[in-house]
Amino acid sequence: MSYSKKDIITSLSLSLFIISFAIVVAVFMPIIYHLDIHYLKIDQTTHLTKQQLQLNYQQLIHYQSIFYQGPLRMNDFIISHHSVIHFQEVKKIFEIIQIICLGSGITSLILVIYQCYHHEYRFFKLTAMISIILPVSIGVLASIDFDDLFILFHKMAFKNQYWIFDPKIDPVINMLPEAFFYHEFILIVIIIFVLAGVCYGLFSYKRKQILCYNTKKDVGAWPSM
After folding, report:
1. Over 60: is that where the pLDDT of 80 sits?
2. Distance between CA 77 and CA 89 in Å, rounded?
């Protein structure tokens, strides 16, 4: 099956949206953290109640939003200067991801409408293929050693070592255990796979429609898939 330039451009845009959307949803949806408070016994580690942890986590996530440009405030934690800088750097990364999500979402919507209007659906299959390449590749590495992957990511993403927290100085790190980030990563992969599956399902559905139409009419009114 050959793909046109329009197929490739649409697929790249839609894949970028799927991946960035999965990250945004995983980060801003608190359900994983709420479950991990109990599963990872974060309340025992921090000596805070579940309600306190949920509030502090919500404050941290609200700070990461592109629509909030104020200082980071957390009710139960005093954050050191170096940690403030780190959270600012994290915020910049998440803001870029949110901008990519919005931009690629709008672009993809326009391209998808255009392609569907012209009865071109091959891009759905290509999108599914492209979308799962990155999470599968990273997933293989994560399954081997998530600790090393976690450290490597921080070394690549940040030019300083402010991401290395001392729990005695910054006990806020105790509310964000590494296992929590692993669970977030799993959620991101699941969301990507689900959306990629939806894309492939749409391709299969439209392909069957086209084959059925061509069989009944015995004409190539729609482009073959």
Report:
1. yes
2. 19
